[in-house]
Amino acid sequence: MGACCPHCGVDDCEAKFDACLDRDFSDPEYGVVHHLMVGAYMMQHGRYTDENVQGTADFLLRHLDEPPSEATKREIRRWADGPYRVIRRAGESARDTADVLWPLSIGDIDLTTADRYRTCVRRWAEAVARTARRNSPRSF
Known about the structure:
Blueprint: H1 13-26, H2 28-31, H3 34-44, H4 50-62, H5 70-81, H6 114-134
InterPro entries: DUF5946
Pfam family, one: DUF5946
């Protein structure tokens, strides 16, 4: 068993994240919520820059029931590849998400069926986005 994550409290959460990624990319029935799974995980673990947390929370809430359009995906890609950083650099000080009381985590994700997975990921993404919205940028 791996170490308990200080951000989400899940043992080996990164291994669970990798398992979700594998499923997202190998089965389109799972991958339909990829945008939610990645956004929730990255926000919960303080990986986005402070400037991108609110926008990511808004994005997750807008796309809980409907994947982003191809135009939206291209816009996100342009933003992510543009002059602004979205992800923290290695060693860069991150928000302390360890004190945030997250109602759900990647440990709550059920991979047994695509339907269960999508339901769990949507619930988790909504919980993370709403929790992030309630917390000021300085409280993470």
